[in-house]
Write a structure and sequence with these properties.
With 241 residues, this protein is mostly beta strands. It has one domain: Sandwich (Jelly Rolls), CATH 2.60.120.560. 13% of the residues lie in helices and 37% in strands. The N and C termini lie far apart (78 Å).
Length: 241
């Protein structure tokens, strides 16, 4: 009896060792989608590709494919030409706590032309918000539950979009699925894919937000000045058919 139990135990242990040996090793972490804008079709965007809409002459200072913004006044600089289907990458960083900015896609020229003073156009906005904005906003006593600081995508004005979930309480904003943004003074990487009325945003290598059925789905790009100094660099675009 004892001998049979001993033999059985040895066989069981051996079979478990064999199973353990056959188990696959834990999967390595998947690489992030760090699109760097190199390859066929990509080109840099610089000063010659943008025109001031309603900012001061010194609001935007260009250096190659990088631009510094004072944040004053509230307004935009827009692309010289309209775009329909494209991929866009850039890096950005806020220079002051609680800074606010954004990148407009498919903005109609009519809404740009109406900006005779401080203000922002219509279109689909990819928000560029510093992490400190939440605490600054909640000092007013109101909850910061209608926005995030990690890459909201939403329509502005009369523009419309069906946002990817999770969705803001008012149903207009696509909230990011992950908290990926870095704080004031640190560079963040955005990869934006805008095709056939669909927008998708990757923040620091991970897709987090976007939407479909965007209207309009063609128009101008714009960089936003909204009260706080911010820098953009490595602006690159690839137009798609």
């Amino acid at each position: 009896m004892f001998k049979s139990l001993l033999i059985g135990s040895v066989l069981f242990a051996g079979s478990m060792s064999l199973i353990a040996a056959q188990d696959p090793a834990p999967a390595a972490a998947l690489p992030t989608a760090g699109i760097d804008g190199t390859g066929p079709g990509w080109r840099s965007l610089g000063e010659a590709d943008f025109v001031n809409v309603n900012c001061h002459e010194d609001t935007w200072t260009w250096n190659g494919d990088a631009v510094a913004c004072t944040g004053q006044p509230v307004g935009v600089t827009r692309s010289v030409k309209p775009y329909t289907n494209f991929e866009l990458i850039c890096e950005w960083r806020h220079l002051k706590d609680a800074g606010n900015s954004g990148i407009f896609l498919w903005s109609p020229i009519e809404s740009m032309n109406r900006l005779k003073g401080p203000g922002l156009p219509e279109g689909i906005e990819v928000q560029v918000l510093d992490l400190g904005y939440t605490a600054a906003y909640e000092k007013s006593g109101n909850p910061a539950d209608w926005f995030t600081c990690h890459g909201d995508v939403f329509p502005v004005g009369a523009s419309t979009m069906n946002p990817f979930p999770p969705v803001s309480p008012n149903g207009r904003r696509s909230f990011p699925t992950e908290s990926r943004s870095k704080g004031v003074g640190e560079w963040n990487h955005y990869y934006i894919r805008a095709i056939n009325g669909e927008v998708r945003l990757w923040v620091n290598g991970v897709e987090v937000s976007g939407g479909t059925a965007c209207s309009p789905a063609t128009g101008y790009l714009a960089l936003e000045s909204e009260g706080s100094p911010v820098e953009f660099r490595k602006l690159r675009i690839r137009e798609l058919s």
